[in-house]
């Protein structure tokens, strides 16, 4: 049974080593779809040898599209989908190898949720409802597929799924600048989806109810305060993302009305 590790990347020269270093010694192939990087991403990927197969593509706003392209191009029996800033721990590696060695069989899961630890500023968050951040990343090829409809979606697997015990490390936000960049990108994607759906957003809900409920849930109910200053900042910005989404939807609507008026 062979394993394909699948990634979609765009300008990941600073983070790509996390994923590739952690899988190079047990992946049978690494399929990497590059969305037109203009840094050294492809050069770094090529340095890992012939086991890395690079597919060049454009960089769509819905980046799950390129992830699915990598999955579709996989040739292994099993697929492990990673992001460039994720690292497979030794414990997780052994767990995956044991599953693949068993193969498919009656009553065995064809997909697995993986617990993920997210780095934020100076620590891996342990509370706030973000750990374990389960994500469905390992599945039999042909059994899993990304819907490519939502920025926060997981793969849909045709069959039974199980849960792994060992962590996947996510070096998401080692500094605040990177976090703000990602925060802005995700709120823009959320706003675009809502705008396309013609959603009518409640000002009270998006400026008061949703932010307060999110902050209380993450910081108090799920004890985000245990993670210190990082836990507070993460809960705060997770809450006020609703402000950004509302404003961006509003600006898109105003822009549409202005164009209609000009026409």
- Count of the domains: 2
Order of helices and strands: EHEHEHEEHEEEEEEEEHHH
Largest sheet: 7 strands, mixed
**What CATH architecture of the largest domain do you see?**
Alpha-Beta Complex
Q: Averaging pLDDT over every residue, what do you get? A: 94
Biggest sheet: strand arrangement:
3-2-1-4-9-6-12
Bin the helical content. 40-55%
CATH level 1 name of the largest domain: Alpha Beta
DSSP strand (E) fraction? 15-25%
Describe the global form: globular
| Total count of helical runs of at least 4 residues | 7
For the termini, the CA-CA separation is 60 Å
What does this structure look like?
With 263 residues, this protein is α/β, with parallel strands linked by helices. The protein folds into two domains: 170 residues, Spore Coat Polysaccharide Biosynthesis Protein SpsA, Chain A (Alpha-Beta Complex); 88 residues. Helix content is 43%, strand content 21%. The strands form three sheets. Strands 3-2-1-4-9-6-12 form a seven-stranded mixed sheet, sandwiched between helices. Strands 5-13-7-8 form a four-stranded mixed sheet. Strands 10-11 form a two-stranded antiparallel sheet. The longest helix is centred in the last third of the chain and has 35 residues. It starts with a strand and ends with a helix.
């Amino acid at each position: 049974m062979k394993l394909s590790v699948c990634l979609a990347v765009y300008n990941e020269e600073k983070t790509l080593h996390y994923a590739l270093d952690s899988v190079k010694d047990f992946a049978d192939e690494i399929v990497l779809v590059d969305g037109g990087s203009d840094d050294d991403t492809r050069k770094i990927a090529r340095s890992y040898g012939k086991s890395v197969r690079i597919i060049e593509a454009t960089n769509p706003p819905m980046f799950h599209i390129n992830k699915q392209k990598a999955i579709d191009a996989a040739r292994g029996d099993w697929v492990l989908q990673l992001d460039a800033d994720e690292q497979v721990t030794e414990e997780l590696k052994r767990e995956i190898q044991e599953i693949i060695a068993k193969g498919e069989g009656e009553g065995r899961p064809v997909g697995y949720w993986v617990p993920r630890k997210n780095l934020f500023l100076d620590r891996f968050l342990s509370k706030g409802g973000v750990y374990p951040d389960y994500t469905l990343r390992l599945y039999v090829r042909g059994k899993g597929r990304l819907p490519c409809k939502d920025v926060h979606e997981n793969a849909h697997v045709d069959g039974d799924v199980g849960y792994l015990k060992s962590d996947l490390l996510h070096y998401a936000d080692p500094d605040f600048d990177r976090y703000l960049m990602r925060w802005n990108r995700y709120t823009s994607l959320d706003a675009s989806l809502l705008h396309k759906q013609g959603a009518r957003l409640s000002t009270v809900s998006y400026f008061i109810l949703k932010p307060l409920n999110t902050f209380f849930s993450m910081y108090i109910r799920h004890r985000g305060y245990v993670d210190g200053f990082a836990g507070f900042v993460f809960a705060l910005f997770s809450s006020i993302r609703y402000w950004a989404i509302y404003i961006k939807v509003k600006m898109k609507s105003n822009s549409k009305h202005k164009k209609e008026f000009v026409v």
